[in-house]
Amino acid sequence: MKRLQSHRQKTIRKNLFFVILAFILLVCFIFSYGIKILLATSAFIANTFNKNKAENSLTAKDDFYGTIDLDGIPDATNSASIILSGRIINYDKIQVFLNDEKVEEKIATENFHINVDNLIEGNNTIYLIAQSTKNSSTKKSDNHTIIYKKNDPNLEIISPKNDEKTNKDEITVVGKTDKEVIIKINNMPVVVNTLGEFQNSVKLQSGENKIIITAQDIAANIKTKEIKVIYEKD
After folding, report:
1. 142 shares its domain with 159
2. pLDDT score of 110
């Protein structure tokens, strides 16, 4: 009987020892890893919340719809000013940039017309920036290059000379101009080579013949020369 009681007491003490040991190990685990797990879980939840908030904000901005359209802009002009026209949607302010400098800012309606002055000779870059004062959204138009040329193109008639006489019913007009210039002789287009040289035959009538040569550049500057050729049959 005593042996049985002694065995039970030993078993109880042994079980109690294991319970206490397990409790101590659990406490150590919680202090060693539990706090780290708790902090990591908190950080994960916070990051997820901030990410969702940022994505919602980005989506709201990306969902903004607005357009800016410019009507056709010429490649070249012979005036130092140009009128820009077009349409905007969901923007209420327009800034105009000429050669990367802001030259105009105005409140805009859906259809706008803006006069831009002080183009420089040669190449000019123009673009617009539309703004919305409601949500600070902006949109930039494409860059447009405009050539400003104020001087007439060169036009030199090498032959024939004015008041020249000939006994042939056809004469060849030879001349020279600038590159990228359209030449017409008596209102008929003439081929101009890469050096600006041209020549073309003209039929003559008996007596005095007027030959009109016009040169027009890409900016619509026009220069005209007129020569007289006298056709006298033998």
Report:
1. no
2. 85
The span from the CA of 192 to the CA of 103, in Å, is: 39
Residue 132 CB neighbours (<10 A): 16
By DSSP bridging, strand 164-166 and strand 222-231 are parallel
Task: Specify whether the CB–CB gap between 114 and 141 falls below 8 A.
Answer: no
The boundaries of the domain holding residue 181 are 155-231
Distances (CA, A) of 18 to 4, 31, 32: 21, 20, 21
Structural domains of the chain, count: 3
Integer Cα distance of 59 and 83 in angstroms? 37
Mark the ranges of the chain whose per-residue pLDDT is less than 50. 4, 38, 49, 51-62
* 0.70 exceeded by pTM: no
Closest CA to 85 of 42, 27, 131, 144: 144
Verify that 50 and 81 share a domain, yes or no: no
